[in-house]
Amino acid sequence: MTPGMKLLEVQEVLGRLLEESDSPEEKEKLNTAMDVFEFIFETGQAEAVDDYRQSLDVRAPPLVSASFATRNEAMAWLLAHPAPLNGAKVLVGGEYFNVVHFRDKDLRYLPPSPVLEFYLQDLEQEGLPPPVATFDTVEQARAWVDRQPEPPRQVLILINGEPHLVAYHYRVNVRAIYPMSLAAKAAPAPADESAD
Q: Does any domain span residue 90?
């Protein structure tokens, strides 16, 4: 079934719920949901929605829209973009950044995003899978990742005894290695019990 067909089926369910509802508030919310589906179809984004849903199903790293080596390259892209997608994620030097665009004043920013740290923290809490390979150095691991004919979407490896996530950002053709230690950045700081 094509991505568009799946979305049409969901839209049919929403239409049925709209017909059956007696609540004006519920009807307004359902109409808004129907408008969202129309927007997806009118802008040709049904496949992008399907990509997103598939990435959730396989617990892939957060999707990115573009990748850049430097912040200067990313800002040049953002400033030249005719309609940046506010809230989209991009990689800059392998790190996540948010696209922020205030249309009314045409202000554009790229603040760092903690989304990867939270993603890694969730993986850690669910229990890490066994590592598929072990390396002494990052360079050895990078060479192994680059040699893979079919990049793994996400697998765990060990580098010098420390767990790392290998991820393939297929939309931008980037193979990345993320240390699982980044998950600690997302963890809330322990409460200071001496303050009692």
A: yes
Dihedral pair phi/psi, residue 23, rounded to 5°: -85, 125
Q: 40, 57, 74: which is the final residue of a domain?
A: 57
Q: What is the pLDDT of residues 73-86, one digit of tens each?
A: 999 999 999 988 88
Q: How many separate domains does the chain show?
A: 3
- 17: Cα separation from own chain's centroid: 31
Q: What gap in Å lies between CA 141 and CA 164, rounded to an integer?
A: 10
Q: Which domain holds residue 142?
A: 115-186
CA 136 vs CA 105, 113, 168: distances in Å? 50, 29, 21
Phi/psi region, residue 98 (left: phi>0; alpha: psi -120 to 50; beta: rest), is beta
Residue 172 lies in a domain: yes
Q: Which of these, 69, 162, 67, lies nearest to 120 by C-alpha position?
A: 162
Please report whether residue 82 resides in a domain. Answer: yes
- Sign of torsion over alpha carbons 79, 80, 82, 84: negative
DSSP string, 96-120: EEE-EEETTTTEEE--B--HHHHHH
Task: Give 150-178 pLDDT, tens digit per residue.
Answer: 887 889 999 999 999 999 998 899 999 99
Residue 166: which of 120, 122, 113 has the closest Cα? 120
In this structure, the answer to whether residues 104 and 130 fall within a common structural domain is no
